[in-house]
Amino acid sequence: MRPSTGSVLPSHHHPSDQFKDKPRSLIGGMHGSGGGGGNGGSGVGSPSSPSSLVGRITLRRIILFAGSVLFVYIIISTAFGPPMDDTGFPIVRHKERDPYVDIPNPVGPNDPYSGRHGGGGASNNRAPIPPVQDIDRHGQRKQAPVIQLDPVDYEDRPWQAGREGEESERQVPGEGQDGMFSDGGTIMVGDEGDVMLADGLEDGESEVMIAAKERKASHISYAQFLSASRRERNYAIALMVREADLALQSTDVYSVTNKNQTAPSNDIHDYLSLSKYYWPNKSKPNGLPYRRIDGHVNPEIETVRDYRLLRTMIREVHIMGMAYHFTGRREYAEKCAMRLKEWFLDEATYMNPNINYGSLRKGEKLGARTGVLDMFTIFRVFDALHYLQQDEGWPQDLIPRLQEWFTRYVTWLETSTLAQVEREGDNNHGTYFDVQIIGIYLFLGRVKDAREIARAALHRRIDPQVKASGEQPEEMARKTSWYYSVFNLQALMTLARWGDDLGVDMWFYEGPQGQSIKKAVDFLLPYSLSGGDGWPVENLKGFDMTDYLKCLQIAWHIYGDEKYIEAIEVLEPRVQRDMDEGKVKTVSTFMCDMSTLLEASNRGGQGLIWHWCLT
């Protein structure tokens, strides 16, 4: 049955009820269809009545009238509306806002840009801004509207303060412009609305323009750089994986208990190493106590394996940790966990947290202060742990247990007589003491203590150890003077890298007489190029350039001195030839170069990869 066309109100609701609070004349006008009709209609629609005009206007006429007005509005807006761009979207004009003043209020209580959660500032009850609808009715992505910024007087710009009277020009990229700088020294707005400063400023060329000119002057294209970078990265990872696989296959036990003689304490868990420059005293029947012959290594040191095993463990954990990072192979992480437990924690094989018997000279009852140096490369283990702990199978209690061990060990460094004498060393021993203890402090979260060591190193290490000429007198006095000059330079650079993370600038520090790390690099440079010709003091065992080349590469990244890159071009082929001939270990410094380039001299960079180029 066809539904009734009458009122849609419920049957119990009389039509006039909805108007019961209205004047009776309006009610009559709404129910009348002209002048008469309907009960009580006479007189209501009469021309003489004040409501007669209202009575003639029906709901249909109201709708027709509103539609007509809307239609006329659309026609006028289309003909005389705002200008459109080539895509049919309106060109939006607005006043350029000051980013430091016109920052909108937070959207809600958890606005990530508000710097806090809930409360404060503007009202947190604002509705979230709806997402932009960037798809048109044909399902195609809309193009962003062209935005033209109205000019702003330069006296209103905060960055123009103090430049009254200077004439400036501001351009907006238009026909024939692509947002690049013009030749007239202008300020232009790029495609993203960012303000770009052009060249031609009175204060000289901007850093951007200088860097752009250097980039254009290079004979190497960016494509060539990318190709070389990928090639060198692949080579570095291949060498890394090869060494990590060898470490993975090793079944030796790395432990202080793996030796055939004990320290004077008779505790097999005490670390023991022999002083490498001490030999039997021929004037004594039993050869005791041993006497020092600098520059000549006594092969007897290999009869006690603690030093060799400690350094092997550190190197292998580091290389497997890096290999895990670059390959994701979990067997590397598992082997690292095993090695760390084996050396530090397992009941049968652990090491006591001290080096009371390091660099022991036979005939003595206690080790030498120089034995503290044996542990200085431990920071490489901490570097590896940064990546290893991310493995889902990594033992969750391992790092806390290691931190407990190193808390006891660092207490020994801070309080024992041997360690304190080593700390006061005025040569590489003192420098590497700082390297070791800073690494441990950072592993334990003692950042303040690490920073104090780094700050003190400016005056305790650089000032007394480096002359204004760059010569390192304590290292030059050694029989192997070239080796130790480079060795201490590596320690100073490692400290400087720690300083980057701790807010201490050691790279560009100069002492009272102009002492600096850079001058130490410069002093060695001419002798590296001459193969040692003209070296002013005695030197045994030649002039190996492998480690100095590493220092030179880092110095190039830090200082950008052209003579460094020129020297690298000469030295790198020589070192590579020695690697090819098996004279020195084949290594790649690409990872350390890239890490140094991106992180060195930047606070908080961590330097987790580039450490291996120095040690």
Automatic annotation (TrEMBL):
The keyword Signal applies. It comes from the Eukaryota. GO terms for cellular component: periplasmic space. Pfam families: Alginate_lyase. Residues 29-44 have a biased composition (Gly residues). One of its GO terms (molecular function) is lyase activity. This is Alginate lyase domain-containing protein. The chain crosses the membrane at residues 62-81. Residues 14-24, 154-172 have a biased composition (Basic and acidic residues). The keyword Transmembrane helix applies. It comes from Dissophora globulifera. Coiled coil: none annotated. Residues 255-531 form the Alginate lyase domain.
